[in-house]
């Protein structure tokens, strides 16, 4: 028969496969040497073809045995020549081999055949079809890349009892290199035949499989049901390496199958040299990895980007021979920890004396092809448990097979429990010098202290944007991708120092099959361009309120979520503050930087940064993210150019004191002035922003903006001087603004202009507004002379309008205003909450009583359910309620008020236009009944009649219309 022709042989596929597996572990179990089957071994050659199929060839001149395993697409092909078969027979008798099972799975996941004989046909020239029990397998290698039918043959070689266990428990088979599990609906494998392995060679077989091109260690481990480990964990690791012994640490990359790993570099070098004589890994990455990140996983220290200190240090350790037994690689995700641990492991065993994996020597070849027997990657979750870790330690105590070091890479080691850590740490001293554990984690804080202190720690830093961009550029060039450098810079900036993240983004963009441009990147990532943000920031810093609102809404409405916008804008500001504006920056950026270059601008920008960072915290908890972000943006324009420290709570307090008295003794705002807090109440419908600390700055700026929008000069200056926005909260998307005035006349005046105020607030907040006007009086307490606050809720009006951004026109009347805003008042309220108690004191300012709106208990609709006196002072000067300007004609001198509440929100709905939430009761109606039962009997246009049991009281209410 001519060379290259192949004989057709009928061969039970299971035997074939098991034989081939054994070929990969041709060690004599007694001597652990490779000498037992030299002929077969010498003839065995691993190959990777262009489609990443893996094949073992038994290179006899005219015949060949070949196992094709498409490691990625799940396609495998198998054929053996007679020569191999002979060897297999020998093998079987020698080792009392069992009969493996094969599952053919077509592309739809159906099982084609199980435990079927395989018939290989002569292959000559293009004739590359081989039949396997009716199933056609095509080898691309022989078909010049033709692949008509994809079959998935899952190598579920049952070399172990563990597999029996698995079968019995119906556990999923995840033997495919992709870790995909076979659908449970797939018919189970046949019961094992007598040919099956009697007793598996221990865990080694699992790890063998794991180490085989088919499986990684973790794949193998995960491919078994828990019962497997529950029963046999002890043996699992002990017998590791007793099978074919090929265990793989290169689990996450496609295995490299280009050559016989045990061949000499000269004979079959893994690394080619390029023209310049530089080593190139190209041909060993001649595969079809699933992602760019896989494909470009660094394989030498040189390729590790941005971790120079770590690299230098590790190289130093290797060159000086100062290898310790426990290493800890920690740092953010996607920065190269796992890659580095593998490179380190390879470097430790590399025979080249170059202290870095040469990629050429036998050890490197074995390692990178995933067949190193001395480097193992361990799944942290799977070694928890005394038995399992015990087995692993036992395994570690055995000498290495062929390498200098036995290396265990424990990824995600923060998942190890304390007990496991304890066992590892305790055994370190007893283990040989040649055992190295490399623990890898992004979560240093989760490790036990005792472990951290015992390790040599290597911190992997976030990778610099420039380094990431450079790497992306190289990838693009190598992959022949069309790109704009700005797009790569942008991706780098968005990947937060994680090269993997950047590579993933690039990968996605490359799939679009278009030039990788900035706008494409924006679209993919869901951000807006920097230019657009600079525009928005510019507007926000100017006083153009409506444009700011409109622009912000546009951006948030269509393309970016508020959280992202905040962080993107904060980054931009930081760039500007850092002077990051190169020549190649966009015109918009340069213009912005020029415009905001003065000292004052820089201060404003840094203050803006603080506001944005504060608002980011609020947004996290808010359901009204867009509104709050708009509010935050509007604050930027009111920033003074003068230095202003938002953290300087003292300054806030001082401001507050000037106007409002002693904050520290006024519970409504007197809780320590810390920050703006947006709270979600127990009732999820209600969100509340309460006045606390720095939020005063926020509220002040909102108020300032709103009052600026009132075009009447007198009203504007009145509001700015005499009014204050004391709290803001949201109820079902309506902003409830509590306003404070400090004189009844002012409150009364504000009440008259409520439409303007509401309108301005609406413009500023960008949503419907309900305003509540409160009168706050400061009354000195005689003993200490301190000012105390008296708060009266006078007026409330909720307006649900179709929001328009236009403020009322100058000099416009209410009717003008109405033209501008289509108004649909829903609830009109006018109420007073004043001191209910009769303190008996005749001196008007000797005592106080405060009714605090902020402490009102609200129902799910946000209506006040009850409101109570909050001060220990139970007395209020009677004349507090008869102060002129209250607008409550029925308030009689000497009459104390008691606050009452309508409990049913249904009533509010029934009477949407005129609904008093809080009303006064006559002094004598103090019974709890009177407090509870209040009912609207009747309401007329200007009057509300309230019926209170045992007492009749009519309270006149002004309609707000
Ligand atoms: N420093 C780096 N140099 C080159 N490539 C890197 C680097 N860091 C990450 N990568 C790329 O990201 C991929 C994942 O890296 P790796 O698994 O080593 O990161 P990691 O830090 O271990 O991440 P994790 O903590 O999530 O496991 C690699 O395949 C590689 O393509
Ligand atoms: Zn080497």
TrEMBL record:
Q: Where is the composition biased (Polar residues)?
A: 862-874
The residue ranges of the AAA+ ATPase domain are 323-464
Q: Where is this region: Disordered?
A: 162-200, 643-670, 862-898
| Enzyme Commission code | 2.7.7.7
Enzyme class label = transferase
Enumerate the UniProt keywords alphabetically: ATP-binding, Coiled coil, DNA-directed DNA polymerase, Metal-binding, Nucleotide-binding, Nucleotidyltransferase, Transferase, Zinc
Pfam family of the protein (one)? DNAX_ATPase_lid
List the SMART domains hit by this protein, alphabetically.
AAA (SM00382)
The entry's cellular-component GO terms read: DNA polymerase III complex; DNA replication factor C complex
GO BP terms: DNA repair; DNA-templated DNA replication
Q: Name one GO molecular function term.
A: DNA binding
Reactions this protein catalyses: DNA(n) + a 2'-deoxyribonucleoside 5'-triphosphate = DNA(n+1) + diphosphate
The record, for InterPro entries, names: AAA+_ATPase, DNA_pol3_clamp-load_cplx_C, DNA_pol_III_sug/sutau_N, DNA_Rep/Repair_Clamp_Loader, DnaA_N-like_STI, HLD_clamp_pol_III_gamma_tau, P-loop_NTPase
- Specify the superkingdom: Eukaryota
Cytoplasm among keywords: no
Query: What family name appears in the similarity comment?
Result: Belongs to the DnaX/STICHEL family.
Protein name, per record? DNA-directed DNA polymerase
Q: Which organism does this record belong to?
A: Salix brachista
């Amino acid at each position: 028969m001519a060379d290259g022709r192949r004989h057709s042989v009928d061969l039970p596929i299971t035997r074939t496969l098991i034989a081939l597996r054994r070929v990969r572990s041709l060690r004599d179990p007694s001597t652990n040497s490779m000498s037992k089957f030299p002929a077969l071994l010498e003839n065995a050659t691993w190959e990777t073809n262009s489609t990443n199929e893996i094949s073992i060839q038994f290179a006899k001149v005219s015949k060949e045995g070949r196992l094709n395993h498409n490691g990625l697409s799940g396609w495998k092909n198998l054929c053996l020549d007679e020569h191999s078969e002979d060897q297999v027979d020998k093998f079987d008798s020698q080792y009392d081999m069992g009969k493996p099972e094969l599952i053919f799975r077509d592309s739809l996941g159906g099982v084609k055949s199980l435990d079927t004989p395989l018939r290989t046909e002569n292959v000559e020239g293009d004739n590359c079809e081989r039949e396997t029990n009716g199933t056609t397998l095509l080898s691309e290698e022989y078909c010049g890349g033709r692949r008509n039918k994809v079959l998935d043959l899952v190598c579920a070689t049952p070399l172990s009892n563990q597999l029996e266990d698995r079968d019995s428990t119906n556990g999923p088979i995840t033997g495919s290199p992709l870790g995909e599990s076979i659908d449970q609906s797939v018919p189970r494998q046949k019961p094992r035949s007598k040919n099956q392995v009697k007793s598996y060679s221990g865990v080694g077989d699992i790890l063998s499989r794991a180490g085989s091109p088919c499986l990684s260690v973790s794949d193998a481990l995960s491919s078994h049901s828990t019962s497997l480990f529950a029963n046999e964990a002890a043996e699992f690791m002990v017998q590791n390496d007793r099978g074919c012994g090929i265990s793989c640490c290169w689990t996450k990359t496609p295995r490299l199958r280009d050559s016989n790993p045990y061949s000499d570099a000269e004979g079959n070098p893994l690394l080619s040299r390029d023209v310049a004589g530089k080593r190139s890994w190209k041909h060993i990455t001649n595969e079809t990895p699933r992602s760019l990140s896989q494909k470009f996983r660094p394989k030498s220290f040189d390729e590790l980007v941005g971790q120079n200190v770590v690299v230098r240090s590790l190289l130093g350790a290797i060159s000086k021979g100062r290898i310790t037994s426990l290493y800890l690689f920690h740092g953010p995700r996607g920065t190269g920890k796992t890659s580095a641990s593998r490179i380190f492991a390879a470097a430790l065993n590399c025979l080249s004396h170059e202290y870095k994996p040469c990629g050429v020597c036998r050890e490197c070849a074995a390692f990178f092809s995933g067949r190193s027997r001395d480097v193992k990657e361990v799944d942290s979750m799977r070694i928890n448990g005394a038995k399992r870790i015990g087995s692993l330690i036992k395994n570690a105590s055995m000498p290495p097979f062929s390498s200098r070091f036995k290396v265990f890479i424990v990824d995600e080691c923060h998942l190890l429990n304390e007990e496991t850590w304890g066992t590892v740490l305790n055994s370190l001293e007893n283990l040989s010098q040649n055992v190295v554990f490399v623990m890898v984690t992004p979560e240093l804080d989760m490790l036990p202290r005792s472990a951290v202190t015992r390790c040599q720690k290597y911190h992997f830093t976030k990778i610099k944007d420039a380094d990431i961009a450079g790497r992306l550029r190289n990838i693009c060039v190598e992959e022949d991708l069309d790109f704009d450098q700005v797009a790569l810079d942008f991706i780098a900036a968005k990947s937060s120092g994680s090269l993997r993240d950047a590579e993933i983004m690039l990968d996605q963009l490359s799939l679009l099959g278009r030039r990788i441009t900035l706008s494409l990147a924006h679209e993919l990532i869901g951000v807006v361009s920097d230019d657009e943000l600079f525009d928005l920031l510019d507007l926000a810093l100017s006083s153009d309120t409506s444009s700011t609102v409109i622009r912000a809404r546009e951006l948030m409405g269509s393309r970016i979520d508020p959280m992202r916008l905040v962080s993107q804008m904060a980054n931009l500001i930081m760039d500007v503050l850092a002077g990051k504006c190169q020549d190649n920056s966009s015109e918009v950026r340069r213009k912005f930087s020029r415009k905001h270059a003065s000292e004052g601008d820089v201060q404003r920008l840094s203050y803006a940064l603080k506001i944005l960072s504060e608002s980011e915290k609020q947004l996290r908890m808010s359901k009204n993210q867009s509104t709050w972000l708009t509010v935050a943006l509007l604050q930027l324009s009111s920033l003074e150019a003068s230095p202003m420290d938002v953290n300087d709570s003292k300054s806030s307090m001082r401001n507050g004191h000037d106007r409002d008295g002693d904050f520290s003794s006024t519970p409504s705002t007197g809780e320590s002035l810390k920050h703006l807090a947006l709270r979600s109440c127990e009732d999820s419908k209600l969100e509340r922003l309460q006045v606390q600390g720095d939020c005063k700055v926020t509220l002040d700026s909102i108020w300032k903006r709103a009052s600026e929008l009132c075009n009447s000069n007198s009203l504007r200056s009145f509001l700015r001087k005499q009014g204050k926005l004391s709290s803001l909260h949201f109820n079902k998307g309506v902003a409830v603004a509590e306003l404070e005035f400090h004189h009844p006349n002012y409150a009364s005046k504000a009440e008259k202009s409520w439409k303007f105020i509401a309108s301005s607030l609406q413009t500023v907040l960008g949503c419907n507004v309900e305003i509540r006007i409160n009168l706050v009086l400061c009354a000195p307490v005689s003993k200490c002379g301190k000012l105390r606050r008296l708060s009266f809720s006078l007026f409330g009006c909720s307006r649900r309008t179709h929001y328009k951004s236009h403020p009322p026109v100058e000099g416009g009347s209410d009717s003008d205003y109405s033209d501008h805003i289509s108004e649909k008042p829903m609830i009109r309220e006018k109420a007073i909450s004043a001191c209910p108690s009769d303190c008996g004191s005749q001196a008007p300012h000797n005592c106080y009583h405060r009714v605090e709106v902020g402490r009102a208990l609200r129902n799910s609709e946000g209506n006040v359910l009850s409101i109570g006196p909050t001060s220990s002072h139970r007395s209020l000067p009677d004349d507090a309620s008869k102060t002129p300007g209250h607008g409550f004609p029925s308030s009689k001198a000497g009459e104390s008020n008691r606050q009452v509440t309508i409990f049913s929100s249904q009533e509010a709905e029934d009477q949407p236009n005129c609904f008093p939430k809080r009303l006064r009761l006559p002094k004598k109606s103090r019974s709890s009944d009177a407090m509870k039962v209040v009912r609207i009997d009747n309401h007329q246009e200007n009057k509300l009649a309230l019926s209170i049991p045992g007492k009749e009281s009519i309270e006149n209410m002004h309609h707000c219309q």
